[in-house]
Amino acid sequence: MPPLSETIRNGISDSLARTQLWLNTPNGRGVLKCTVAYTIASLATFVPFLANFLGKPEGKHVVATITVYFHPARSVGSMIEAILIAVVAVAYAETVSLLSMVTSVFFGSTMHLVTLSHVLVVVVFIGGGFGFMGWVKQRMLNPLVNVGSTLAALAIIGVVTKESHVMSNVFSNEKVLQVFKMLVMGITTTTAVNLLLWRTSARTSLRETMNRVSIPLGDMLYMITNSFLSGSEEGLVSDGFTAASTHYAKSYAQMMKDMREAKFEHYFLGHEEIYEHERTVARSMETLAQALGGLRNATNTQLEQLKHPKQLSPKASGTASPNTARQLFEQFNESITMSMTGVRQNLCRILHEPQFGQPPSYEINVDEDLRRNLMDSLSTFDTARSDALQGLYDRIEQMASSHESTRANLEEVAAACGHFTFSLQSFGEDVLQYLDVLDDLEYVIIRKSRSWRWLLWWKTGAEEDRNKAIRLFESAEADTLMRTRQRSVNVADGSAAVPAPVDLRTWYNAPDLNKILGWFWRNLSALFKKMARDDIQFGLKVGIGAALWAMLAFLEETRELYTEWRGEWGLLSFIIVCSFTVGAANTVSLARFIGTLFGALFSVINWKISHGYALALIPLGWLTSFINFYLVIQHGKASLGRISLLAYNVSTLYAYRVKRKADGNDATEDGQFSQPDIMEIAKRRAIAVTAGIIWGLVVCRVIWPISAAGSSRRACLFCIYRWASSGSEALSLSFSAVKGPRAISNPANKLLCRDMLPIWIA
């Protein structure tokens, strides 16, 4: 048995080796990039020159907080998107801050209506401003938009509620200018670290992911065809099939993520045409996956018939037996096995072949020999399939020529065989189409023309081209699940129109109603319908909750309490925590509460160790950021890690600024200051953040609860309603085409359509 010291030494050595290997992974490098950006941004608090550049107002730790939310552990395309969103967020925050200050000065100082000025600021600029951000968050459903909303809220809160200029009806651009400087410094730091340290390209990652996506498709194709040929479902329920399906799901999700981020890189470089073809390749892969799902369903249908064959009638021909279905299937397999095996082999080779070549160039490399072999095998398989099916039906005629029910049962087996072979033939043609799409992409890459026409969206005539600048922020996989279909029945000339019943919900459209009253109720109904939308409801929830909290900063009775206990951090916590559904609010609130406690604990420990000296706080802050970014990047605990660093920043970095003032080393402040009490500071910040979390829970659970289960039920009911409406309309159109346009008004025909509707939906 080795001595204890050697065991410890070997354990430390193994841990260091594993850590070194992890640091060379994308996640490890991402964590290091985040810690570097955070450490550089924290220098805005520790370095006197940078602190003096930011001016006299407090809050210089916001520079470090920006790098926490806009972290550099992302691709260049994602960074471009983050910069664009940050620019919009900064412009919005500055506009709201300036307008709130102008409103306060005009109504408070000029008109001497102080109360009115405060009411306008709280209702319009706090309630309306934050409500608009909530509407944008729910409308876009983009994590980076959520981060941009947080930064905008941070800037607005710092100007409107934290400083006394708006409350005192005095115009001052000092805080507005400082917020602008901090935002620019934080975003610039993140961008510089992202581009200069281990830069990653979403375009390269997309090619790598596309190579991986096709491999599990080939694996699943092999197991599906093998299950069909063997007549056993072992391949479909095996661990290998489950692993291949899981691998495809993960690779597909990563491909869609890379596709969205690569879009920004292509648009920025002027390669919009390349992106459009890459998206076509991705859609072609999605088509292959859907076709593979149809192939699996066809196999399940065949296996179900073999497992539970229908009993043939005793009046059938004597050649029939309970195993007739199995005999037919085996006869069909004997005729088709060789050609099907050839098709499967060529398809699997193409899907397993990396069509985008090897790193680092990932050049498209379509094997023409494989393409020709696939075309030849598909032609042979098509002929063999037709002959095998013809032979199968001839055999059915011989076995069950004397009884119709027996023939129908046997024809179900033949139809299932035909369904599978037709699906396999279609899948092979889809693979050929996939290779053609790759050829088109290769041609576009070779030409590689640059164009930034999407910037001139107002000069293009087509509506799709005009929306390209807007579609830049849309997800690559964001296709409308259900589109509104409008069909009209062309009534023959001379036929009497069927009078439509008056809907009680749209009574204001009646022709005999007063026009003014009808216009009023019509617009009021449209307003209520819009307010019932999810994004509008969430915006109202955020705006009302923020206004009620910010009101405490403007009331004389609560203003001192709001300032002393740092109510602005509670308001920011409310904005971060407030979610659309109750379940999301519960999940986020718990993580942020735990993160707040950890952040306060880190703050106290680091301060006690360093005694408030910058040379010790900087490496300790790096270590703290490493732990939290490890949670964010490696384990996906963004809510926990971010709020922990936020609580650490508002406590430790603020305490350092107070210590510098107390030591007389701050050139921006004059007067006497006491030494900071880190326990008191951390306690007040933690209580403020926790109070904001609790207020978010109160708003989401008590004042305006929205259940995710209820929303899902309404969505499902809406889907069923749309399907039923489409089915009823389709049946009506079919019936009208057969019986005439007046036939559908017959009550008996209406009942017939109603009875046929469930069958159509099924």
Automatic annotation (TrEMBL):
Record's GO cellular component terms: membrane
Could you tell me the membrane topology recorded for this protein?
A: Multi-pass membrane protein
According to the record, the segments passing through the membrane are: 36-55, 76-93, 113-136, 143-160, 180-198, 567-585, 613-633, 686-704
Q: Give residue ranges for domain Integral membrane bound transporter.
A: 561-699
The reply on keyword Coiled coil is no
Where in the cell does this protein reside?
Membrane
Q: Which UniProt keywords apply?
A: Membrane, Transmembrane, Transmembrane helix
Which PANTHER family does the entry mention? 60S RIBOSOMAL PROTEIN L19, DUF2421 DOMAIN-CONTAINING PROTEIN
Name the chain's protein. Answer: Integral membrane bound transporter domain-containing protein
